[in-house]
Specification:
The protein is mostly beta strands and 324 residues long. 11% of the residues lie in helices and 50% in strands. It has 4 helices and 14 strands. It has a 14-stranded antiparallel β-barrel. It is globular and about 65 Å long.
Length: 324
């Protein structure tokens, strides 16, 4: 058991040492999928629930999802844009679980304008990713998982193809209701570039925990994100000098669940980076604040969350799951 855990942690640390930073493509991969995760600050990799939408953040969480679960997700984003995803989970044996997922983002039709500001036509833009996942229970408390992704984007006459991998590990103690996870996301590169230059994928190294309480209907989650990105130029600050404290807080997302029953949750979260960048862009209305609610019945699950990712309008995330 010890050798397996050391190997899993070594893979994650090795991934972090080869982190891909700075400008990247395929950033739709970082758009929120899970309503519950969105409501807890937009980033969560440690929540243990029978919710297939959570596996997009951490493949190790496949081990907590019921057999033959079908999951559908939708997000409102920019006007005219559609963002959606789907997942199917199948238990293979006593310790193994697999899943297949699909993601897409369609940005509607846009005007094609020359350098001389002349409109010469229009074009459409879209992103998609098809993935296969596998998770394995190392023992009663530890699980590891991996996701392989085929990624395709097409913007007008330009297209790109990439391959990527997510690696995740989770520790969960049911007796203390404590979960701890680490994830390396979007390790890989472009097979076919948009042009002559191959660009980087949005790599992210994350660590997070979730803790419930025996005598109170509350559960707290804290996630540290972008742990390989400590260059201030990576973060938007509207020309102002980014302070050390804000730089540190940009890596933090936190939230709390209120659990009035065993099958319902109400969530409130805060994303410090979104708050800082939205305020720097001129908005202070609910900047960084996230909220949501959901139900998890024996066969059916539904989740809804609110967050704001740009100045023009808030975003809503919808999840629906059914266990066949």
């Amino acid at each position: 058991m010890t050798k397996k855990l050391i190997l899993a942690l070594y893979i994650l640390l090795a991934a972090a040492s080869h982190a891909q930073e700075s400008n990247s493509v395929f950033n739709f991969l970082e758009m929120p999928v899970s309503a519950h995760s969105t409501a807890l600050g937009g980033r969560n990799i440690s929540l243990i629930e029978d919710d297939a939408s959570l596996v997009f953040s951490n493949p190790a969480l496949l081990s907590s999802v019921s057999d033959k679960t079908l999951n559908l997700n939708f997000m409102t984003y920019l006007q005219g844009g559609n963002v959606g995803s789907a997942a199917f989970v199948k238990i293979l044996g006593e310790r193994s679980t697999m899943g297949v997922t699909a993601q897409y983002a369609h940005y509607d039709t846009m005007d094609e304008i020359t350098a001389d500001n002349v409109t010469v036509g229009s074009f459409s833009a879209m992103d998609m990713a098809l993935s296969g996942m596998y998770a394995y229970n190392l023992n009663d408390r530890w699980a590891g998982g991996a996701t392989g992704k085929f990624i395709y984007s097409k913007y007008g006459d330009y297209s790109s193809v990439a391959l990527a991998v997510d690696l995740g590990v989770n520790y969960y103690n049911e007796n203390t209701d404590f979960s701890l996870s680490a994830v390396a996301r979007n390790l890989g590169g472009q097979v076919k570039a948009f042009g002559e230059i191959h660009e980087k994928l949005p790599f992210s190294m994350q660590i997070g925990f979730t803790k419930g309480f025996d005598h109170a209907p509350f559960r707290v989650s804290v996630t540290l994100v972008d742990l390989t990105r400590w260059d201030k130029d990576y973060y938007f600050a509207s020309g102002e000098e980014l302070s050390t404290s804000k730089m540190l807080m940009n890596h933090l997302a936190a939230g709390v669940d209120f659990l009035p029953t065993d099958y319902m949750y109400l969530s409130l979260g805060y994303n410090f980076r979104k708050a800082n960048e939205m305020k720097a862009a001129g908005s202070s209305h609910a900047a960084g604040l996230c909220a949501g609610a959901g139900i998890l019945l024996s066969r059916f699950g539904f989740g809804l969350a609110y967050a704001q990712y740009h100045l023009s309008a808030p975003s809503f995330v919808f999840n629906a799951s059914y266990r066949l």
